[in-house]
Amino acid sequence: MKHRIPFNKPFMVGKELYYIAQAVLGGQTSGDGRFSKKCQQLLEERFCSKKVLLTTSCTSALEMAAMLCGISEGDEVILPSYTFVSTANAFYIRGAKLKFIDVRPDTLNMDEKLLEEAITERTKVIVPVHYAGVACEMDVINEIANKHSVVVVEDAAQGVNAKYKDKYLGTIGDIGTYSFHETKNFICGEGGALLTNNDPFALRSEIIREKGTNRSQFFRGQVDKYTWVDKGSSYVPSDILAAFLYAQLENMDEITARRQGIYNQYYGALQPLADRGLIELPTIPDGCESNYHMFYILLGDNDTRMALIDHLKRNGILAVFHYVPLHTSPVGQGMGYQSGMLPVTESLSERVLRLPFYYELSEAEICSVVDAIFEFFSVDRQGDL
After folding, report:
1. What is the CATH topology of the domain spanning 252-376?
2. Average pLDDT of the chain?
3. Looking at residues 366-380, what average pLDDT do you find?
4. C-beta separation of 71 from 96 below 8 A
């Protein structure tokens, strides 16, 4: 079904098609070609990361992270239940025991106050998920992780180009992961990246990404032939995707500024409804610099949310919600979790609604979305009932 205002729309902002043609004419469309290297170098320099490797998805990057951490049967991994399934699956498929903890009501991020009590002698990894491009409380998380010798893997799928206390998300823990899926800020259809400032992780990540071989060292002339040396898989994206992505990364500041404008327009226009207690608006704490990945509102309950979704659809507008908390899913229940165990997560997951948000969303379209929301609550734009 087509909507007058969709939830998301892929976009081009620079030389995407030109660079794709250059990749083809240059004679290499497979992985680790000219544009893959350019993307990685740009991200390393901008984000001050020793190693950035493009991957086929953020899921792939998370799976690589699980291998780098040496996850095996019985190891414990602490993460929020309010996240996409890939965050959990990367560790679950390697036999980890998943320990879900609740989220904060202001940012929907992992509640760092609950973290230390969840750690045991079997805990190997903590996975903070930076929801909506707003940072988790990384100083506290890293302090606890260091105290207990636990690895921190940042799921920054939604956090590319966002900051926590002047450090880019994905570079603050031991390993970071990004997404360049078409719903993200910077896109190439499907794609991701793994980042690390840890030298041993940097060396091994190249091997894991190249099917467990030392192929990258061979191409640098460090070995006279390459061979199978470790576990791994094929996590290298096509250089065609990297070519598209490079054009987006060249324009990160422009894209971010445009998204900030959309965010601010939504925020200002919907503030009267928040002032009346009809909705709640997103929170960006001090010390966090958002990348404006999304704009969501919180409704009073699920019935109100579903009624508003239907109302928006009747007006040709697609708004969506996520996630079904992982601890309440069939797999989560199979681990022994039950509804009621993470009350903040469960409440927020039933009330969040994501509004249309994409680079080419116009001011007139934002006004249409806002007008429809005001109409739903029987409030005019001047605030009169």
Report:
1. Aspartate Aminotransferase, domain 1 (3.90.1150)
2. 96
3. 96
4. yes
